[in-house]
User: Fold this.
Amino acid sequence: MSEPLVLGIETSCDETGVALVRGYDLLVDAVASSVDEHARFGGIIPEIASRAHLEAMVPTIERALSTAGVTLADVDAVAVTAGPGLVGPLTIGAAAAKALAVGLDKPLYGVNHVIGHAVVDELVDGAFPERVLALVVSGGHSSLLRIDDTVHVAELGSTLDDAAGEAFDKVGRLLGLPYPGGPHIDRLAREGDPEAIRFPRGLTAPKDQAKHATDFSFSGLKTAVARWVEARQDAGEDVPLPDVAASFAAAVADVLTAKTIAACRREGVDTLVVGGGFSANSQLRDMAAQRCAEAGITLRIPPIRYCTDNGAMIAALGSAVVRRGMPASPLDLPVDSTMPLTQVLV
Assistant:
């Protein structure tokens, strides 16, 4: 007997993602993005994102079904992002998922967006070992998690201020780069010297390590970049954008990987999963690969197309909870913009 076919819907921010997963097999991952509509504002406008989800939902579902060669009647369960995320966009996705669950008389599963960023790797590299560590880094999250049996999560650490992706967007604006800043800084960094400027590494001093060994802070780094650039400008000197970008990106990647490898050792875990939009950053990928190899840790990072928000990550997590016989969510399931990372399922 084949595994259940799970339809996943993701609408936590500006991507409308719809995917179909059977077991560990991804049949289709369809995405409609409204990012271009937000670029002129320098950030996501929730009302614009919500309207875009409304307009894209039905066409994206239809495209996913057509591409996979299945119909709604073939769907066995519906999974949807219940949080964290923006309330308006989350509500659009939840409403669509509830309507499908009622109309199809199939179970509904409201799952955690952040956990999905890690679990999507099961569609690429197969089932997780019994225990893994996951570093989830995106625009809103820099979180270090211990995951047991795929669906039991302990939060080991998180960002105390700006997440890595937020810091990149803010530094991007500072350097006059288009929104979102991450890809543009990554591109510039490849042309620069990562050792040209020694920017600070937040929460790595001995006094901080005792209390915040697994936490992150990038606000001070962002400020240090701003002051360095301002000092050059005040002196009438050119700002070497590639060197600034490379040195800044190296500082972020250094902190993320050093703290994560140390956590793997403390927890006795030999498999690390890195996910989230910022995991597409080339310096982070390169540094994680090097340091994991040196430490004898297996590194799993999904392909870049699964790093940004997508329906595959929600369908993958939905498939995992269905596989384990976890109870379905109520049809009046609420969305939660601050959903705890230890809560995999509503």
Observations:
- The longest strand covers residues 25-33.
- The chain has a mean pLDDT of 96.
